[in-house]
Amino acid sequence: AQTVTQSQPEMSVQEAETVTLSCTYDTSESDYYLFWYKQPPSRQMILVIRQEAYKQQNATENRFSVNFQKAAKSFSLKISDSQLGDAAMYFCAYKEDQGAQKLVFGQGTRLTINP
Amino acid sequence: NAGVTQTPKFRILKIGQSMTLQCAQDMNHNYMYWYRQDPGMGLKLIYYSVGAGITDKGEVPNGYNVSRSTTEDFPLRLELAAPSQTSVYFCASSYSPVSSYNSPLHFGNGTRLTVT
Fold it and tell me: Which residues does chain B have within 8 Å of residue A41's beta carbon, measured at their own beta carbons?
């Protein structure tokens, strides 16, 4: 079974600084998707960024970028120029290419932004 | 707009008892999900539905059943409660598939279930 591990229960960063959240996963599949979701207190799980495993280029969405190391099964999220609105729980997630709606989530990392 | 509503918030069951966790959403979402979260662990998908009348197993379906007779409701049934089912259960819904941008997963507040 696939597993996703986030080893940082909590992280904090000064406003305008850069922070990196770690995620590792385990799978025997070669085609899959990886995601970072943000969950603010509203309890919505918002997709921040998505990476297809067959793509070598790291995904980027504005201030959010990933470092995807397929051989190492590592998928970290970098948030540049941190803003107060970035404070939330962040979940790393995995989905098999053929797995429809079956997301496997990590434990989550609570990110605090210090003004 | 209530979003996703789960009931009850807390429940204690004896081994072998049955219960239904209720979930309702008022956003006309086609996609609905049941997750469980054990202490210190990530969310695990139990069952999901892509529309009324359509359900499918997730990662950990054993010991559970679901039905989706309407778009709004997606109840989760535990037939013979076991201590291994002690967990926090979350219902969620989304307008589009989970891997879509601009289509958040809306979660309920959860049901904390203890089986003794």
Answer: none
Q: What is the pLDDT of residues A93-114, one digit of tens each?
A: 998 865 567 788 999 999 999 9
Helices (H), chain B: none
A45 vs B56, B59, B104: nearest CB: B104
Give B72's DSSP letter. S
pLDDT at residue B59, as a whole number: 86
Sequence-ordered list of residues with C-beta below 8 angstroms from that of A5, at least 6 positions apart, any chain = A23, A24, A25, A26, A106, A107
Cβ contact B91:B74 at 8 Å: yes
**CB-CB neighbors (< 8 A) of B98 in chain A:** 47, 95, 101, 103
